[in-house]
């Protein structure tokens, strides 16, 4: 599975309205539940909160990678949130977060989940990837950035 398949345009929200981490989780999970017709909102939020309680997923300046494993989903899903104003995320560096790459996976699907996290981490090492995503004003543009950088990564392999 490719990252551009993991983050379909309907699960990319440019212009997150949330001001803090909890609101962001709820806003992004609500989007997921609406798109995927899921009634598992609370189970998904619980999985994300439990993972976050171990250590903040605000991993580097301006970027968070909230993730959780739960039987409330039957496949690996990605939801991307882009905030123009920044979110108080309690990140490790204390800075606001502007990009949230949320990944949900079933309890039994560790291999695909870890492979996708690794690929995303490699893309996030490129500061231009972050910059190019931040200037997007629509989900299709953000998806185009993911695809462009993932294609470059694949070409280098």
Give structural attributes:
157 residues, alpha/beta, Mannitol-specific EII, Chain A, 6 helices, 6 strands
Elements, N to C (H/E): HEHHEEEEEHHH
Structural class: alpha/beta
- CATH homology-level superfamily: Mannitol-specific EII, Chain A
Please state the overall shape, judged from the principal axes of the Cα atoms: globular
Instruction: Assign the CATH architecture.
Output: 3-Layer(aba) Sandwich
CATH topology: Mannitol-specific EII, Chain A
Portion in helices: 40-55%
CATH class group: Alpha Beta
Distance between the termini: 16 Å
Rg, rounded, reads: 14 Å
Low-pLDDT residue spans: none
Strand segment count? 6
Percentage of β-strand residues: 15-25%
Mean pLDDT: 92
- Domain count: the total is 1
Description of the structure:
This protein starts with a helix and ends with a helix. It has a single domain, classed as Mannitol-specific EII, Chain A, CATH 3.40.930.10. The chain has six helices and six strands, in the order αβααβββββααα. Strands 1, 2, 3, 4, 5 and 6 form a six-stranded mixed sheet that branches. α5 runs antiparallel to α6. The radius of gyration is 14 Å and the shape is globular. With 157 residues, the protein is an alpha/beta fold. The longest helix is centred in the C-terminal third of the chain and has 18 residues.
């Amino acid at each position: 599975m490719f990252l551009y398949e993991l983050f379909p345009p309907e699960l990319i929200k440019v212009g997150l309205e949330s001001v803090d981490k909890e609101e962001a989780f709820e806003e992004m999970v609500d989007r997921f539940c609406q798109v995927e017709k899921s009634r598992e909102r609370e189970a998904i939020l619980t999985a994300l909160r439990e993972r976050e309680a171990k250590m903040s997923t605000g991993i580097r300046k301006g970027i968070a990678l909230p993730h959780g494993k739960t039987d409330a989903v039957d496949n690996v899903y990605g939801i991307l949130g882009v905030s123009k104003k920044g979110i108080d995320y309690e990140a490790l560096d204390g800075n606001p977060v502007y990009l949230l790459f949320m990944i949900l996976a079933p309890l039994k699907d560790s291999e695909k989940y870890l492979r996708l996290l690794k690929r995303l981490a490699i893309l996030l090492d490129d500061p231009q990837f972050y910059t190019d995503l931040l200037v997007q004003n629509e989900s299709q543009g953000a998806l185009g950035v993911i695809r462009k950088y993932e294609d470059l990564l694949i070409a280098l392999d």
